[in-house]
Amino acid sequence: MARVGIKREQNKYAALLLTPALAVIIIFTSIPALTTLSYAFFRWKGFQRLGFAGIENFQRLFNDPFKSYFYMALRHNVLVFIAILVIQTSLGILVGYALFKLKRGHRYFRTVVFLPVIFSLVIVAYMWQAMLDPFYGPVNYLLHSIHWDGLAKTWLGSTSTALPTLVFINLWRWVGFPAIIFLAGFNSINTEFIEAARIDGASEGQIFRKILLPLLAPSMTIVTILTFIGAFEWFDLPYVLGGTNGNPAGAIDTLALMFYRLSFGSVDSGANEIGVGSALGVLIFTIVGVGATFGSRYLRSREVEA
Amino acid sequence: MIKILASRTFFKAVLIFNSVIVLAPVLFLINSSLRETNDFARTPMKLARTPYWQNYKDVGRAEIFLFILKIH
User: Fold this and answer.
1) In terms of CA atoms, which chain A residue is nearest residue B24?
2) pLDDT tens across B7-35, in order?
3) Distance separating alpha carbons of residues A50 and B21, to the nearest angstrom
4) How many whole angstroms from its chain centre is CA A59?
5) How far apart are CA A67 and CA A61, in angstroms?
6) How many CB atoms lie within 10 A of CB A261?
7) How far apart are the first and last CA of chain B?
8) What is the pLDDT of residues A158-214, one digit of tens each?
9) What does the DSSP 8-state code read for residue A305?
10) Beta-carbon count within 10 A of A210 CB
């Protein structure tokens, strides 16, 4: 009887302690999300809400003039996700493993690896705009000076190079993040496994492939899910370097940029379309939510216990 | 032993290469911040042997900068 009383008292305190956090989540996350969801089902004139529209906004998103922009932006998001997942994860593992193997200079290299992550994105964008400038940028200067003139391009101004260049800038900024996560993963692996494998005559490559990499799966899950969310909500870098239209000629347009354009309007694309914008917002939310949930469930099922 | 040394050298090279890639734009930014605008436009790759501190003084004097500082 006394135990039930204590349990009830504990539950009361737990509820009391959870209330502020729950209130913050409800006010700042749940209510805005539900409001956006409701906006998608209404007709709008500027910022003035008109009658109920049903699924009309969603249908308009998949018809002209929005259809072509939507598919182009979606294609860019998918390409960015694949490129970042493959290259950033591989580089993250390589740099993380290099830091793990390092005997001296730990503090310096760890700081340098993580340095770009702490920079403001606007400064990163400005820095790379200067670096890649076709007239005074050091990248083209270097290419000209070693007589690789054909490789010197207007990196951010050409439709064929703008997206890969943005992916590179994104990698430059973020590769330190998975590297540090993987380093923590390597450090958490029990050294007895490695020593036992060495005694059994396993080479360094075999130890890496057969022991370290499978035990790194929890870190891999985190990195993959964060990369997925980041790639499908990619807004800041394309916005700073390409404006609301993802210039040049929409070459770096993403779903988040299109959402911004539709919801708030822009100088080039004209007035806003809050209904269609909200429908797109709901769609992005669904893609990210469903993808992250199923992705993490699948990846967690493949993890091995250390 | 040679294999271990080779792998250590390889991983050190990876980190040194990463350092160069990470620090090059930062150093370029710092160098260009210490040069006069016209001088930078003429020879962007030149090192700032005599730092042009006026850029920093100008930033400190800019009204918008002071305004932002006051807000934050």
Assistant:
1) A131
2) 778 889 999 999 999 999 999 999 999 99
3) 53
4) 28
5) 6
6) 24
7) 57
8) 889 999 999 999 999 999 999 999 999 999 888 888 889 889 888 888 888 888 888
9) -
10) 13
Name which of A81, A28, A25, A32 is nearest A226 in CA terms.
A81
Token pair of A251 as six digits:
């070459």
Query: How far is the C-alpha of B69 from the C-alpha of A232, rounded, in Å?
Result: 34
Query: Residues near A60 by Cβ (< 8 Å), separated by ≥ 6?
Result: A66, A275, A276, A279
Q: CA of B33 to nearest chain A CA: how many angstroms apart?
A: 11
Q: Do B44 and A115 touch (CB under 8 A)?
A: no
Q: Could you state, in order of their start, the residue ranges of all structural domains in chain A?
A: 65-120+160-305
How far apart (Å, rounded) are the C-alpha atoms in residues A42 and A50? Answer: 7
ipTM of the complex: 0.82
How many alpha carbons fall within 13 Å on the CB side of residue A228? 20
Q: Inspect the interface and report whether the beta carbons of B26 and A115 lie closer than 8 Å.
A: yes
Q: Is A201 left (phi over 0), alpha (psi -120 to 50) or beta?
A: left
Distances (CA, A) of B64 to A303, B35, B60: 52, 22, 9
Tokens of A213: 């990499």
Q: How far is A106 from chain B (nearest CA, A)?
A: 10
Looking at 3.40.190.170, 3.20.20.70, 1.10.3720.10, 3.30.230.10, the CATH number of the domain A65-120+160-305 comes to 1.10.3720.10
Taking the CA atoms of chain B, what radius of gyration do you get in angstroms?
20
Kindly determine whether residue B8 and residue A101, on different chains, have CB atoms separated by under 8 Å: yes
Give the closest of A101, A113, A131 to B25, CB-based.
A131
